[in-house]
Structures are given as C-alpha cells and as structure tokens.
Design a protein that fits this description.
457 residues; mainly alpha; Fumarase C, Chain B, domain 1; Fumarase C, Chain A, domain 2; Ribonucleotide Reductase Protein R1, domain 1; 3 domains; two-stranded antiparallel ribbon
Length: 457
C-alpha cells in the first residue's frame, strides 16, 4: 500500500494514499480498533448536510472565501448523496463527543475540495478541515444536531410509513374477520367468545398508539444544538449562523427543524434521544405481543390452535420435511429484543451528561438510528409478507367455542354463578359440551341455550 504524510498538532501521520481522510481520522483508526462498527449512512449524510449549509451560510456572511466555500458545498453535496460512504471509517466506540467522526467528515470534505481546487487530495490548503469546513461549529453542537436530523428524517421517511402500512393491514383483517366468532383466551386458558375481527382490531390499535407516541417526540427532536459551539455559549460563531443553516436544512428535508431554545440543555443532555428510544421500545413491546399472538393463533397446523393461517415462505427445518415455521413473526420478535437492548444503552448514555457535554454521543447515535431503521424494515416485512396473507379457519374457530367450558358464562344471568359452575364441572368430568349438560337441566330449553349461548355453529 502507498502512503502519504499528513500533519496535525501532534506530528506526522502516515495515511493511505488513496484515502480522502487525514491525520486525525488515521489516529482514531489506530486508537479505536474496537468493534468494526461505524456510523450508519443516515448519520453521516445528516452530518454532511450540516457542513454543506454551514459553508453556504459562511460564504453569504462573508466569513468564507467563495471559491473555498463552493468547493466545500460541492463536496458536501456529494457526501450527502453517499459518494464517500467508504471513507467514514471511525469506530462507533471512540471519544464520547464524536469529535473523531466530526473530523473524519471535515477531513474528507477538505481533502476532496483540495483535489478539486489543486489536483491533490489531502492536506490543509487551500481548504483546511478545521478553519474552513468546521467554521462556526464544534463537534459538541454538530454531533447532537446530526443525531436529531438523522433520527427525525428516518422516522418520517421510513418508520412512520411502515407503521401506517402495518396498521392498515391489521385493520383490513379486523374488518374481514368481523363475523368470525372465536374463543377468547385469558391466562392462556379458555375465556368467553369474541370475534377474530375484534382481536385484530386490538392489534391495529396498538400500532396506531405507537404512531402517536413516536409523533409526540418530534418537537424535541426538531430542536438542534447547532450554534452553541463548545459549551453552549456560541463562542466563535456568527449570531446569524445557526438560524440560517437550520432554515436551509429544514427546506432540504421538509421537516421543521429549529434552533434549540437553550443551548446548554441541548449539549449537556440528550433527553430527546432517550425519550425517542422509549417510544421505540414501547412500539417494540407492542410488536412482540402482536407477533406472538399471530404465532400462537397459527400454531399447528394439526396439533396447535390453528385458528388462522399465515403465508408459507420457506422450509422450516433441515431435518423435518414439510415443516413450515412462522419466520416473519420470529424476526419481528428478534428485532424488538434488539430495540429493547438498544434502549438500555441509550438510557445509560443519557446519564452521561457531565456538566456541559454528554460524552456517550456516538453509542447513543448508533443505537437510536439502528432501532429506527430495523423497526421500519421489520414492520414493513411483517405487513407485506405475513399480515396481508393471513386467512381464517372458520370451522376451527367455531369448534373451539362449542367445546369450551367458558361458554357457560353466558348462562350466569339466567341461572346464577353457582349453578353455572356446577354445569361446567360436570361437562369437564364427562367430556360433554356445556350445551349438552345444560340441556339435561329441566329449567333450560333449547331456545334458552340459543339465546344465552348463541346458536350452535
């Protein structure tokens, strides 16, 4: 491999000749060979978006030479489009402010701008990664801003549409199954009947409430720390800088971002990220309930509950021919477990706001964006590959009702709790149905049974 020499305040560093990043990125690569995990593209594109509009505003304010600014803007636009994704190489587990990742971006943009202007990548002239690309900024306000931009963008572009789709598919099934009577279950034991449609309407409502919860965090995510620089005071930045940059970011994304009401809160704490993760965890809990119920309802096909059928997508066993498993609900459950684990890391990260800066920003960003992304993906798959293809087994649903001891509950208004319990006990001991035992009672007629138990299916 060929190398070039790059200099920074600590001395000279050898950097791969074909790399756009520079000395500080190389030092981070050598200092943090920890996980191989890097920031997702959504985060780096959000960070590049900040750099693009920062250069534009600094140019308009007369703080940055137009030639240099135009080169940075062009390069940042390319980064937003994903052209340099392979150059963002710093491990997630790094300095808690994310400074190494901010400098990774600054160096890549400066290096590419220098290549445009001079024909040589790398270096600090004519474009300097700190003096020009990072002008008016600090890692301490840029990284929290990029977290909010990336999170809110992913929520709007991916998660909300996926949840809407899942809710709609569940609502369609609730309507389609509205006339199918089935046995209710509480404590995993037989309970009084309801319709399959009513059961699915509960699932749809869970998803709708999840949508409401994630939308509720938007006003806090929309606040950006940009403009606070090192500790929230705005040192070394123009008073108009943040507002103008944020306005351009809002225009670009179509989202209503605004400058933080209090920069000291915005940089010292990450409560909005913690709140957002809590909403994601609640959605994950809802999805586990729905996925598990669908697994149980479709279990069998001959020795389980079997009240519904789900699509057969792939062979389920390497040893048992013909076996088909509920693979999509199982994927939903696994994703949900990951989201719950991510929430714990984010919660602990939120406690690391020491004085004027939170020092677990990278791991919070990684986990938050992963949670949003995988929830969006799995809910889309759940809706399209599982829920949309569910069908009902009407005969099985009806058969369970007629055999259930819980059916006796319908007789309580007519004969009282104690007598109904006696009938249930006798039905259990004899293996007969509630209807058969009740018909043996001279005080109950077939018409009474149709009234209180419903007509036999």
């Amino acid at each position: 491999m060929n190398f070039r020499q790059e200099r920074d305040s600590l001395g000279t560093v050898r950097v791969p000749a074909d790399a756009y990043y520079g000395s500080q990125t190389q030092r981070a690569l050598e200092n943090f060979p920890i996980s191989g995990l890097t920031f997702p593209p959504a985060f780096m594109h959000a960070l590049a978006l900040v750099k693009k509009y920062a250069a534009r505003v600094n140019k308009e304010l007369g703080l940055l030479d137009s030639t240099l600014a135009d080169a940075i803007i062009r390069t940042a636009r390319e980064a937003v489009d994903g052209k340099y994704d392979d150059q963002f190489v710093v491990d997630v587990f790094q300095t808690g402010s994310g400074t190494s990742t901010n400098m990774n971006m600054n160096e890549v943009l400066a290096s590419r701008a220098n290549e445009i202007l001079s024909g040589q990548k790398g270096g600090t002239a004519p474009v300097h990664p700190n003096d020009h690309v990072n002008l008016g900024q600090s890692s301490n306000d840029v990284i929290p801003s990029a977290i909010h931009i990336a999170a809110l963008t992913l929520i709007h572009d991916r998660l909300i549409p996926s949840l809407n789709n899942l809710r709609d598919r569940l609502s369609e099934k609730a309507k389609a199954f509205g006339d199918i009577q089935k046995l209710g279950r509480t404590h995993l034991q037989d309970a009084v009947p309801l319709t399959l449609g009513q059961e699915f309407s509960g699932f749809a409502r869970q998803v709708e409430l999840g949508l409401q919860r994630i939308r509720a965090v938007e006003p806090r995510l929309a606040e950006l720390a940009l403009g606070g620089t090192a500790v929230g005071t705005g040192l070394n930045t123009h008073p108009d800088f943040a507002g103008r940059v944020i306005s351009l970011i809002s225009d670009h994304t179509g989202l209503d971002f605004r400058e933080a009401e209090n920069h000291f809160e915005a940089q010292a704490a990450q409560d909005a990220a913690v709140e957002t993760s809590g909403a994601l965890k609640t959605i994950a809990v809802s999805l586990v309930k729905i996925a598990n119920d669908i697994r149980w309802l479709s279990s069998g096909p001959r020795s389980g509950i079997g009240e519904i059928n789900i699509p057969s997508l792939q062979p389920g066993s390497s040893i048992m021919p013909g076996k088909v498993n509920p693979v999509v609900p199982e994927a939903v459950i696994q994703v949900s477990a990951q989201v719950m684990g991510n929430d714990t890391a984010i919660m602990i990260g939120g406690q690391a706001g020491n004085f004027e800066l939170n020092v677990m920003l990278p791991v919070m960003a990684y986990n938050l964006l992963q949670s949003i992304s995988i929830l969006a993906s799995v809910t889309q798959i759940f809706a399209e590959k599982c829920v949309s293809g569910i069908t009902a087994n009407r005969e099985i649903c009806a058969g369970y009702i007629e055999k259930s001891l819980a059916l006796v509950t319908g007789l309580v208004p007519k004969i009282g709790y104690d007598k109904a319990a006696t009938i249930a006990k006798k039905a259990y001991e004899t293996g007969k149905t509630i209807r058969e035992i009740a018909l043996e009672d001279e005080s109950l007629t077939a018409k009474d049974l149709d009234t209180y138990l419903g007509k036999k299916s």
